[in-house]
Give the backbone structure.
Amino acid sequence: MGYVMLGIAALNSYGVSGAIFQMFNHGTITSMLFLIVGVIYDRAHTRCLDDFGGLANKMPVYTAIMAIAFFAAIGLPGFSGFVSEVMCFVGGFNSFPVLTIIAGSGIVIGAAYML
């Protein structure tokens, strides 16, 4: 949501449009990630990753959906999160170039967290 603040603070069309789009994307992506955890918890009654042991072998379609959700969450090109993040960065770079470059490191941290 820091990208939303960056886009709104830029006060230009790219920044504000990207912030609005990012708020929508954040809601859809986060709800998809919570749904993934909820389905697994409902079936297994645990959230411990060591207890699953090869979930991709047992549920390959579910694993593909989970990968899509993770890729959308980290803002991979081709997914909805990427477009809104780029719009926030383009809008923010015109007003706050140094802060936008620092905020760009959040993409790397988020990717490392998800992967």
The chain has a mean pLDDT of 90.
